Amino acid sequence: MRIAVDAMGGDFAPREIIEGAILAQTQLGVDIALVGDRDILANYFKQHNYQESDRLEIVPSEGIIEMDDEPLEGLRRKPNSSIAVAMNLVKRKQADAVISAGHSGAAMAAALLRLGRLPGVDRPAIGALFPTQVAHKPVLLLDVGANVDCRPKFLEQFAIMGSLYSQYAIGIKEPKVGLLNIGEEACKGNELAIRVHQALQENPQITFAGNAEGRDILKGQFDVIVCDGFAGNIVLKFAEGVGNAVIQILKEELPKGWRGKLGALILKPNLKKVKERIDADEYGGALLLGVAGICVISHGSSNAVSIRNAIRVAKDAVDNEVLERIRGQIKPKVPVPAIDDTPDDPPT
Question: What is the pTM of this model?
Answer without folding.
Answer: 0.85
